[in-house]
Amino acid sequence: MTEETAPVAPQRFGTRVRSIHGDHFDDPWDWLRQRDNPDVIAHVHAENQWAEQVCKPAQELAENLVSEFDSFTAPVVYSAPQRVGDWWYFQRQYHEDSYAKHYRVSASHYPDTPVLADSETLEGEQLLLDENLCAQGEEFFKVGELVPTADGRLIAWSQDTEGDERWTWIIQDASSGDIIDQRVSDAGYGFAWAADSQSFIYTRVDDAWRQFQLMHHHVGADADGDSLLLEEPDEAFDLWFSASNDPWHVVVHSTSTTSGGAWLWDPYAPSVPPRPIVAKRDDVQVNVEPAGDHLLVIHTALSREGSLACIPLPQEGAADSVVDPDRWVTLYTAGDGERLSDLEAYRDFFTLSYRRDALPQARYYRRTRPLVVADGKPVPASDCSDLWALGEELNKEGTIRSLYPLSSGRFEDCLVRVGYQSVLTSPTVEELDLRTGKSRILKVTQVPNWDPSDFTEERVWVTARDGHTQIPVTLVHRRDAQPDGTHAGWIHGYGSYEVSFDPEFDLLRLPALKRGVVHAIAHIRGGGEMGRSWYEDGKKLVKTHTFTDFLDVANYLVDSGWVHPERLIAEGRSAGGLLMGAVTNAQPDRFAAVIAGVPFVDALTTILDPSLPLTVGEWEEWGNPIEDPEIYALMRSYTPYENVRQGVRYPAIMATTSINDTRVFYVEPHKWVQRLRQATAQVPDQPPIVIRTEMVAGHAGASGRKGRWQARAQEFAFALHQVGITK
Fold it and tell me: Is the pTM of this model over 0.85?
């Protein structure tokens, strides 16, 4: 079957016409945005059927890949138990299940963190939630968070059955399993219980899917009567928070990509609006963490890579609760090549996450003066200058690895918990007891039929085309492989929003590695791998650095001999899908196949429309093409949909999307595929260009382990077939 028989969406001009900054564009396929139009849904179904036909030759390989994913999966995959109140909470996912089961066990049976085993049932364990039962009858199902009350009486958990990341909160009696409240729906991310476990706070999203309101809900009450505690009117900012280890405080943030402010909510007075503690300042980011009798903050007022400081608690009854930055006590400022990112505080220590050498790092700080509690509340520290000793590094051997502090339990516990992994090392959780100095492994994710010693992972540095920028690359291949110019290769990238694409374990990558594919992660500018400066050198007017870096790494893989020039696969998702479109337009002969997952390929149209979800906040990432002709001209030059090259041979392309995706609308890849097919219609031997759409899912794709396996196997088999791997 040839590409000419692929579904053709007719061009309908006049649907969306743009005339701005002297440029005119009449978009012929924007009518595909009309999701309620039967013609649109019929076209989407036709594309799915076409993709199925095109992929038939690779179907046997796809089925083999699913079987291999299954063979690499342990009989039971479990989490390291976490202490809340007098219970340890954990989850297991059994081999035959698509979803997890959530449990708890009393700390009276296990004073220390219990270490789970595949076949072991803990004494007195209780099943709280079986996601598999909840998912029955649902085409899509996902649990977001599970948050127990401190007294262990209730659990709250969030579910999404559409894939649009609008959550329903379900309140359940932990002992009986009875559901007592599911009235809060269409919520954003974030949840925290009041101290009496009778109410909670959550966020509400607006029509543009921006978290803009902080709401207070009483368990069992009608959600229409929920109280508005805080509202963020600025469309460039989002409200967010998470439950705190500190039982007396929860910090609520309002942030853009360049600045932010913070408020303090009191769980003991849950209906009282949170008090402002950090005022917004232009180009100053803040991340505030409560620490009982004071606050800790990472901020960018002194260094764009971050400084760590102590903040006194606001005085009770003061008319102005905002703490003057002159009263902040600096503990540490990022050194050369570092970037401070996150905090987690406990009574006697806190952990600091940061980046150095293009890898996540961590250290912990011990408290030097004890926290004092009177009448059930902490006594505010009068002096923050000598509360903490110098930080101690948490490190693990390995040239490339990802290492993250993890939540370890109650505020009063002295347990530092860290997780680490790499492309070849499965996730491991280790716990350090600060009282005894002893550490122990709580969890190692078992991977049957996999021997990492057969492979090697290394960090290489590729010189960018400017002659001086060094791009870090994670390179993984069989230990016996040589750069002889014969191998298939697979290069991944993202490069936006200061998000780091760190080397992490993914068992779905193992079949390709075992087939000899050379795996590379290009840590390109626009991401956060090398700090804030690395990010800022790949956004707005220098966004094209993201694309040229990726191409420079792709060219290195071929020029160095690691990859055959006609056997390189490229993959990117979301903003990484924009990357795929841009680099394919720039150098279409570099890649044999491209996988573009939920790709942001119609970027200019989206960023020109403030009514769409996320757009206004996105102007700090891409620039505002409405107001700035230079930004418009730049985006017009790289937005993939509008820059497809006519009559040029493109690689085989599989785009994937979901009909309910809020972050990147399904219409973007569908328009892109139509334009690609039109441009390549007369190109001899043009490889297939297909798109697959999940009809009930969102940005993350199909739900459930087996659903994800099947979807990814289709993508992988399609790409591997293009480079001669057919079994």
Answer: yes
